[in-house]
Amino acid sequence: MKCVICKLGETSPATTTVTLEQGSMTLVFKGVPAQVCDNCGEAYLDEATTARLLETVQDAARAGVQVAVRDYLAA
Asked: What is the domain count for the chain?
């Protein structure tokens, strides 16, 4: 697909790093599958991947995690 940010590049399957913050908690996920723009590097996540990340953040918050770096694990 054409990148909606730079309007020049095309996206292709790759992985990216995603940082999510909730309150005082910060989680960094490495190796997240995404469509990444070959021009500007903007990453687009699909709905299932986004839902999985948000579920993991909620679980981490309940467990009292403050800072964590994790490899992305598909469901």
From this structure: 1
Q: DSSP state, 10?
A: B
The enclosing domain of 30 has a CATH number of 3.10.20
Query: Is 67 within the bounds of a domain?
Result: yes
Tell me the pTM.
Answer: 0.89
H or E segment at 33? strand 25-37
- Rounded to whole angstroms, how far apart are CA atoms 30 and 28? 7
pLDDT digits (tens, 9 = 90+) for 24-64: 999 999 999 999 999 999 999 999 999 999 999 999 999 99
